[in-house]
Amino acid sequence: MARFVVLLAFIVVVLGGGTLIGYLTLPGDWYAGLAKPFFNPPNWIFGPVWSALYILVAVAGWRVWRHDPWSAAMRLWIGQLVLNFLWSPVFFGLQQPGLALLVIAALFCAILGFMALAGRKDSVAAWLFAPYAAWVAFASLLNASIWWLN
Fold first, then answer.
1. Disulfide: which of 33, 36, 73, 143 matches 118 by Cβ 3.0-4.6 Å?
2. If you average pLDDT over every residue of the chain, what do you get?
3. What is the average per-residue pLDDT within 98-122?
């Protein structure tokens, strides 16, 4: 039972933190006025996608934490979460797509690093990050395109 309480805590921190940051840094008029590439998805897609991804991120972190809470993989998991939570305030809050591009590039590297390290002991945890890596790669391209166009 205790391990499921810890899983719930991971979900609350990741999903709750991501949701809170999303609400605190809504895109607003500045973002609406930016030139965007043809492949920019509709705004409504981001909430459901990030919610699903945050649950996968939480479960992956919980799985690694159960094996070794002080491992390098766990430190990378924490690092990627910090970078993830930093991106929205930099992009939307500071209105700095160039700086946000550096943040998301570091995030993508941390995601890949986590997958590599976690995969040594828990392939499920590593694979839980695959959709996240794909989405962040796409988001990186979107971020770079917005920066380039503006």
1. 73
2. 96
3. 97
